[in-house]
Amino acid sequence: MPPAALERVTDRVYRIRDRFVNLYVVDAGRVVLVDTGTKAAGPRIREGFRELGKEVADIAYVLLTHHHVDHVGTAGVWKLEAGADLAIHQDDAKVLAGEERRRGTGVGVRGKVTAFVAGLLSRAMAVSPVRADRVLLGRGTVELLGLDFEAIPARGHTLGSCAFLLASEGVLFAGDAVNARGRRSAPPWSVEDAPAAAETYRAIMAMTPAVVCCGHGDPVRRPPQSP
């Protein structure tokens, strides 16, 4: 029997692993997707929806944490098939739309290797440009399906990286602003603005959500806060 596509994070939040990258499903009757995996993620996402008793038509919104192809790979599919609204920060919107190209640089030896490999993979995993329906300008609350998501600019990994806090679930969707691949979380290895990436990482880790859901690696669960 194949492993389940969905992994429960909280009552409403589920993780789907698309090979080496995570995307998240927020179930509010209809669905908010946070990131969309690579362009090959479609079958895995459809399987996850079947497990949840949902259909593709239930995707109402897609929140994109940044422009990289392993996070936006099926965004255009759900926009076309489900009529989903896509949202991304303004500083990454032109890259998503194919109007600008950008590459990150590596931090340290591991980061330089990661950035080099990412550059090769980005060409192999390239997707058709897609325009966002919502361009996020700064920190603020976005109400979707009766849930309040706080959009938090998270510049560094990309210039328009954006985290999303769903306080009602105690979850912060950090995208690649937090690297959770190793035993301990760390700043991203590949960046477009290195000083900003370090500052963003410190700011996110100073916050107190119960769970930080990252683009790579397992969710980082925090101990309960003392009253």
Structure, explained:
The chain is α/β, with parallel strands linked by helices. The chain has 6 helices and 15 strands. It has helices at residues 42-51, 69-72, 75-82, 90-96, 108-124, 194-206; strands at 6-8, 13-18, 21-28, 30-34, 59-63, 85-89, 105-106, 134-136, 140-144, 147-153, 162-166, 171-175, 190-191, 211-214, 220-221.
Quick structural overview:
The chain has about 230 residues and is an alpha/beta fold. Helix content is about 25%, strand content about 30%. It is globular and about 45 Å long.
Task: List descriptors.
alpha/beta; Metallo-beta-lactamase, Chain A; six-stranded mixed β-sheet
The CATH class, by name, is: Alpha Beta
Q: Using DSSP, what is the number of strands?
A: 15
Number of helices: 6
Uncertain residue ranges:
none
Overall shape: it is: globular
Roughly how much helix do the residues carry, as a percent range? 25-40%
Sheet having the most strands: 7 strands, mixed
Main sheet: which strands, in order across?
A: 1-2-3-4-5-6-8
CATH architecture annotation: 4-Layer Sandwich
CATH superfamily: Ribonuclease Z/Hydroxyacylglutathione hydrolase-like
Reconstruct the topology from this structure:
Layout: E1 6-8, E2 13-18, E3 21-28, E4 30-34, H1 42-51, E5 59-63, H2 69-72, H3 75-82, E6 85-89, H4 90-96, E7 105-106, H5 108-124, E8 134-136, E9 140-144, E10 147-153, E11 162-166, E12 171-175, E13 190-191, H6 194-206, E14 211-214, E15 220-221
